[in-house]
Specification:
This protein is an alpha/beta fold. It has a domain of 83 residues: 3-Layer(aba) Sandwich (Rossmann fold), CATH 3.40.50. It has 4 helices and 4 strands; from the N terminus they run βαβαβααβ. The longest helix is centred in the middle third of the chain and has 15 residues. The radius of gyration is 17 Å and the shape is globular. Its cofactor is a metal cation; thiamine diphosphate. One of its GO terms (molecular function) is thiamine pyrophosphate binding.
């Protein structure tokens, strides 16, 4: 059994569904963000993009479920989270949206592999165990 990744155009809501793109225009205007260590540089680039509305969220679940609601009403939406726990936490919402053909875009930002062992990414700088 193969997996097929569909193009964004194939994921548009059908007429009669909950929502649809206003005036037939499909595009990302709102990006829901959860700040983290590795996505701050990306935020600088997103802030510089005209016509893009950046909305900070308290946690990844707020970001991804708000992204889902906006995709249902506008046709497409995006969120930005950090890697590992945040990236894995958004999978359920994305699976739900995929099963209903609502296109969500999630940008999961991680460390640059060239930075391992440098000042930018020390090996064990954080210990949650004490």
């Amino acid at each position: 059994m193969g997996t097929k990744i569909r193009a964004l155009d194939e994921c548009k809501p059908m007429s009669g569904d909950m929502g649809g793109p206003p005036n037939g225009i499909v595009g990302v205007t709102d990006v829901f963000l959860v700040s983290g260590d590795f996505n701050l540089t990306l935020f600088d680039h997103l802030i510089a993009e005209p016509g893009l509305n950046l909305i900070g969220c308290y946690n990844k679940l707020n970001a991804v479920y708000t992204t889902d609601v906006i995709a249902r009403s506008h046709g497409v939406s995006a969120c930005v989270v950090t890697f590992t726990v945040d990236g894995l936490s958004v999978l359920n919402a994305f699976a739900d949206a995929y099963s209903e053909n609502f296109p969500l875009i999630c940008i999961v930002v991680g460390p640059n592999s060239k930075d391992y062992g440098t000042q930018l990414h020390p090996p064990s700088s954080r210990s949650y165990l004490g």
